[in-house]
């Protein structure tokens, strides 16, 4: 039952990020979208900061079940806030009935004359359409991975996200055992350096990508007939991406060996700060790029990113503890760091082939 409820909760939470990022893409102009998207992601980044601290305090005082009661109460508060403080902006108009459509609701005389078999067929078709809408149609977002610009951007963000979950598992597993032997609340506090890096990356990373994109447009002389700059999403992946590609893998290796050797706890946590900063540069950049590669389907771009990266995070969360037990933090995070560094080939590929991929994708989506 706990697994089923967590599955439902994860599905509900995923929609918030997809719809929220899509709304940001609709409201903010391209030249300011990176900064707006980064500010939006400050919200999700509050989770890694507050959840371990609050959860650790509750679990230590009243047991793990108290964390579930807290989440339920928090969900009720959020629901009330949404109902009373978030107005619906979409005007709903009642459509005129289409008498020629196969889906039109038949009138009473037709229903009266319909046979039982016809009514059963109509009911079966209705449920088939509903099941298709609920379970099949959402999976159509996977088809966007056929576009290289989307697939490699999603891959790079997913690798980073999967590593993040492995790092989170390692923190709890390593620092709750000797030589550290921290309490539950102390382990929760260890997530603060990561979150500080996330916050710093959110505040400055998006604004940085906006400036880089504007600089590249000016350098290429891309202007429309009114003299306004023409922006390209692949321009967001420049020196900021290369710095992130070095920063967070190096921080992983730093953390892995210092944690394995039992170095003073401050040293691996400094590494985690740099990991948080570098990984957030990747997240903000990738999410913004996906909304711009698919300007008319921004929510779908973020949704496919969430779909793939959550698969990576699931694999990371499940395999982290067995791998730590088998080879230790040092070799585990050295391997992850090497994989992350090797994955930076995405940056080179986007620089070389990005414009061509985008043109092909624009032609197919239009």
Low-confidence sequence ranges: none
What letter string, H or E per element, gives the SSE order?
A: HHHHHHHHHHHHH
Computed CA radius of gyration, to the nearest angstrom: 24 Å
* N-end to C-end Cα span: 44 Å
Largest sheet: none
What percentage of residues falls in helices of 4 or more residues? over 70%
The chain-level structural class is: mainly alpha
Strand content: under 5%
The number of helical segments is: 13
Shape field: globular
Averaging pLDDT over every residue, what do you get?
Answer: 87
Strand elements, count: 0
Give keywords.
mainly alpha, 13 helices, 366 residues, globular
What would you note in describing this structure?
With 366 residues, the chain is mostly helical. It contains 13 helices and no strands. It has helices spanning 2-27, 30-40, 42-62, 65-85, 108-113, 116-136, 148-175, 184-189, 192-220, 239-260, 266-293, 298-342, 345-365. The longest helix is centred in the C-terminal third of the chain and has 45 residues, at 298-342. The protein starts with a helix and ends with a helix.
């Amino acid at each position: 039952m706990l697994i089923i409820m967590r599955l439902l909760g994860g599905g509900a939470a995923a929609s918030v990020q997809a719809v929220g990022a899509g709304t940001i893409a609709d409201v903010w102009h391209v030249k300011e979208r990176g900064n707006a998207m980064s500010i939006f992601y400050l919200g999700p980044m509050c989770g890694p900061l507050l959840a371990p601290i609050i959860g650790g305090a509750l679990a230590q005082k009243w047991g793990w079940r108290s964390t579930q009661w807290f989440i339920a109460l928090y969900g009720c508060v959020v629901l009330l806030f949404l109902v009373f403080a978030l107005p619906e902006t979409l005007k709903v108009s009642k459509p005129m009935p289409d008498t020629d459509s196969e889906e039109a609701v038949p009138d009473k005389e037709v229903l009266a004359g319909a046979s039982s078999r016809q009514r059963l067929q109509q009911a079966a078709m209705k449920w088939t359409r509903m099941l298709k809408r609920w379970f099949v149609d959402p999976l159509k977002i996977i088809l966007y991975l056929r576009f290289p610009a989307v697939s490699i951007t999603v891959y790079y963000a997913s690798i980073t996200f999967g590593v993040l979950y492995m790092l989170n598992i390692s923190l709890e597993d390593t620092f709750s055992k000797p030589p550290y032997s921290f309490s539950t609340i102390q382990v929760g506090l260890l997530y603060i350096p990561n979150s500080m890096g996330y916050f710093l990356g959110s505040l400055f990373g998006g604004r940085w990508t906006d400036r880089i994109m504007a600089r590249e447009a000016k350098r290429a002389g891309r202007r429309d007939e009114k003299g306004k700059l023409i922006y390209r999403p692949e321009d967001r992946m420049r020196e900021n991406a290369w710095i992130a590609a070095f920063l967070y893998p190096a921080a992983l290796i730093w953390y892995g060996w210092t944690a394995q050797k039992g170095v003073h706890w401050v040293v691996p946590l400094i590494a985690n700060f740099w990991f948080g900063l570098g990984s957030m540069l990747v997240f903000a950049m990738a999410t913004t790029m996906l909304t711009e590669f698919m300007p008319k389907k921004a929510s779908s771009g973020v949704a496919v990113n969430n779909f793939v990266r959550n698969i990576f995070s699931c694999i990371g969360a499940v395999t982290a503890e067995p791998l730590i037990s088998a080879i230790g933090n040092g070799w585990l995070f050295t391997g992850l760091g090497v994989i992350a560094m090797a994955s930076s080939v995405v940056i080179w590929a986007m620089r070389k082939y990005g414009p061509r991929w985008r043109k092909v994708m624009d032609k197919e989506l239009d």
